[in-house]
Amino acid sequence: MKSDNDLQRDVLAELTWEPKVQAQHIGVSVKDGVVTLTGDVPTYAEKFATENAARRVAGVRAIAEELKVVVENGWITLSGDVDWNFQREAAKEAIRHLMGVKNVTNLIKLNAQSVSTKDVRTKIEAALKRNMEKDAEGITIEANEGKIELRGKVHSWQERDDAGRAAWATLGVSAVENDLVVAF
User: Fold this and answer.
1) For residue 43, what pLDDT band results from cuts at 50, 70 and 90?
2) Which of 114, 14, 24, 116 lies closest to 55 in space, CA to CA?
3) pLDDT band at residue 112 under the 50/70/90 scheme
């Protein structure tokens, strides 16, 4: 059985490892295997991800969650910077159906990073091979300062969607224009 100090160290390490959590905003204390999470988080998605990360650590007997997400008059404004588009989308998706939420303004920005056409093409090819056993031969990809343009023909809506998701899954992508045409 882990000591409380070991458990605290492991929970903090797991929070740091989880890309959906800003670990520097989370306090972790442990007593008799019960983990208490404290702090203010910008989104319900981060609150949920923090709890899930703590649950993954072996030896955690229970979680006392004291994280706060602030909402005013049913209007939620999300702000901050993230590296991945899925983080921005997940934050909005996680809260938009909560009771009392009237509107969500998503001001979360993607960190600007250099993206190469080769990196995007490699990701798209891998995604298409995994999911449809096809290649990206009919796809033209252009990358310009984090903005990706996909053009050409694919064999199904699934391939079109897979190509778009693969483009978004490339670090540094800030926008995707998916103009792929499905040609049966």
Assistant:
1) confident
2) 14
3) low
Top-tier CATH class for 4-110: alpha beta
d(Cα 39, Cα 152) in Å, to the nearest integer? Answer: 48
What stretch(es) of the chain map to CATH 3.30.1340.30? 4-110
Give the global pTM: 0.46
Fold of the domain built from segment(s) 117-182: GMP Synthetase; Chain A, domain 3 (3.30.300)
For CATH 3.30.300.130, the residue range(s) in the chain are 117-182
Cα–Cα separations (whole angstroms), residue 76 to 33, 45, 88, 96, 145: 34, 13, 14, 9, 30
Structure tokens at 176: 């995707």
Q: Given this model, what pLDDT does residue 56 score?
A: 93
| pLDDT value for 105 | 87
Instruction: Please tell me the distance from the alpha carbon of residue 126 to that of residue 107, in angstroms, as a whole number.
Output: 31
Res 87 pLDDT > 60: yes
